[in-house]
Write a structure and sequence with these properties.
Strand order of the largest sheet: 5-4-3-6-7
Helix content: 55-70%
Radius of gyration: 33 Å
Strand content: 5-15%
Order of helices and strands: HHHHHHEEEHEHEHEEH
Number of domains: 3
Structural class: alpha/beta
Length: 323
């Protein structure tokens, strides 16, 4: 870790603390002038708490002190414009804030109980109404804590974790992929289960769909029915070709699999990964859509319903286009 640069010291914490002290002093002076010294001594806490600016700066200071490593663990990188990166809060970094919310709810609930007991104990006294009002305010504030908790959890933390998961998944896919969208599709020749030869280079001017699967692969079993639908919709088009290749599968295993599931699209085996290794190192299923000029215009790894919808749209777009 690089040492902190003294020339770029962040004075946000010091500024917030100074503003709190200034507002507290102003509130105290105002209370002393308007109510007298005796009232000032009795009600100074209420006057301080009533300052909106004081509460704002106090809140900012509390948020900053939640992480003494300059916000990086709780909020991610702290931006230069001094705005909190709350949209970058992970579950791990949210735990201290969750504990603070729980503690705050408990404290407010305890205060409500104290005010209620005090009101009951001094029922005939002059402060009963004030204590009941404070009890009602504290009790009404309790639900705010779980609401804030739910809002942060479902509006910030979970979406951030989903984005992080997608980013890590894409990084892993990119690390084991040899071709991506926009690259020229590697040429190959393979014989399908019927004995017909599929040569990708011979399909220039046509749109080709290449899929890699394995008979034991769960996501592949979910994806192939969608491939069958695409085949059913476009099999009669002269400018469309499709091949589904079984990675590390024999011709016999692919034939048996095709017969079992009643798939009518062309299937082939790639027992030595000779074709698959042109496209990727690992991870199936993989689907590539090759445009008329031999470029990959769509690629997906794994099975996701939204990817199949994108594939269908891209296929329709490519079939409507001319070279």
């Amino acid at each position: 870790m690089q040492p902190e640069n003294p020339g770029n010291k962040d004075y946000t914490t010091d500024a917030c603390l100074l503003l709190i002290l200034i507002e507290a002093r102003a509130s105290l002076k105002s209370a002393a002038r308007s109510r007298g010294f005796a009232a000032f001594k009795r009600d100074n806490t209420r006057h301080i708490a009533s300052s909106i600016r004081f509460r704002y700066n106090l809140g900012v200071l509390i948020w900053i002190f939640l992480d003494n490593t300059r916000y990086t663990r709780l909020f991610g990188k702290f931006p230069s414009n001094n705005k909190f990166c709350i949209h970058k809060m992970s579950i791990k970094s949210y735990l201290p804030l969750q504990s603070a919310l729980h503690a705050g709810a408990f404290i407010v609930l305890a205060l409500a109980v104290v005010f209620l007991v005090a009101a009951i104990a001094g029922w005939r006294g002059p402060f009963r109404k004030k204590r009941l009002v404070r009890f009602a305010l504290c009790l009404g504030a309790v639900p705010m804590f779980p609401l804030i908790h739910a809002a942060l959890l479902y509006g910030v933390v979970f979406p951030y974790e989903a984005r992080q998961g997608e980013r890590l998944r894409q990084e892993r896919i990119d690390a084991v992929s040899f071709v991506n969208i926009g690259d020229a599709a590697p040429s190959f020749s393979i014989t399908d289960t019927t004995g017909a030869t599929f040569i990708l280079d011979d399909l220039r001017g046509k749109v080709a769909l290449v899929n890699f699967f394995a008979t034991w692969c769960g996501p592949c079993l979910l994806e192939l029915p969608h491939i069958q639908e695409l085949w059913d919709d476009n099999r009669d088009k002269s400018d469309f070709a499709l091949i589904v290749i079984g990675r590390e599968e024999t011709n016999e295993s692919v034939t048996a699999f095709q017969s079992k599931h009643a798939y009518s699209f062309p299937m082939a085996s790639d027992p030595e990964r000779s074709v698959y290794s042109l496209y990727a190192k690992e991870i199936i299923p993989r689907t590539y859509l090759v445009s008329r000029d031999g470029k990959i215009c769509f690629a997906s790894t794994g099975f996701y319903e939204e990817d199949m919808a994108k594939l269908q749209r891209e296929l329709g777009k490519q079939l409507r286009s001319t070279q």
